[in-house]
Design goal:
Elements (H helix, E strand, L loop, with lengths): L12 E3 L11 E14 L7 E8 L5 E4 L2 E3 L6 H13 L1 E18 L2 E17 L10 E6 L3 H4 L3 H20 L33 H8 L4
Parallel strand pairs: 1-6, 2-7
Antiparallel strand pairs: 2-3, 2-5, 3-4, 3-8, 6-7
């Protein structure tokens, strides 16, 4: 029997409905984040992944993948591990890239164009906890329920990619996963759009400077 062909092409860049640049007279600020999904139970029948629940500025609940800004000296892969640990309390080891999403939103007097690198990780250790001030709840969600739980369409598409990669991992082993690349570390500070009291969108927020200066939780 012929072994199935494995597609090692890099995951496509995905855009949500807001992926196109809005027509406004506001200047654009670019932000870069990283995060993803930690999966546990790869040896069992029902793998689970870690999600967080947050509340947006309008008071609406969102289930989403943990993520955060890429800080000075970090590669996206390092940011994904750190931010997932900070927002969920668990640590993972990188398995494969899931893809890149980008979208637009207004913040103060400018438009933010955010690019987010997502990764699939395997659970290493830790316990779920919602210690991050932006996180209301963290939960293990069965992989087959992931797309119905996630709020945003672009993350639901990445969830389908995660399910496919886990299935390929079970069938063909680690060689079936797309390879991880070694990205360049970030050398410049960037805007954190959640810092509404910042007068200059190019200036990193106080939280960003504190997080960079101190050890990761």
């Amino acid at each position: 029997m012929t072994e199935p062909t494995r597609d090692h092409r890099r995951p496509r860049r995905r855009r949500g409905r807001s992926g196109r640049r809005p027509v406004t007279g506001l200047r654009t600020v670019h932000e870069y984040s990283a995060g993803g999904l930690v999966v546990d139970g790869l040896d069992g029948e029902t793998p689970v992944v870690a999600l967080i629940r947050t509340v947006n500025r309008r008071g609406r609940t969102r289930w989403r993948m943990p993520k955060g800004h890429i800080e000075i000296g970090e590669q996206p892969e390092q940011t994904a591990i750190r931010e997932i640990a900070e927002e969920t309390g668990i640590y993972g080891a990188l398995l494969a890239p899931l893809g890149v999403c980008d979208y637009w939103f207004p913040s103060q007097d400018w438009m933010v164009h955010k690019t987010v690198h997502h990764y699939l990780l395997q659970f290493v250790n830790g316990e779920l906890c919602a210690d991050d001030h932006e996180v209301v709840e963290v939960a293990w969600v069965p992989l087959d329920e992931l797309t119905s739980r996630l709020t945003h369409a672009n993350e639901r598409e990445l969830g389908r990619t995660a399910a496919r990669l886990v299935a390929e991992l079970h069938t063909h082993g680690p060689a079936a996963l797309p390879p991880l690349t070694h990205s360049q570390p970030r050398l410049e500070p960037q805007t954190h759009s959640r810092a509404h009291n910042s007068a200059d969108p190019r200036r990193p927020s106080t939280e960003a400077r504190r997080r960079h200066a101190g050890p990761a939780r």
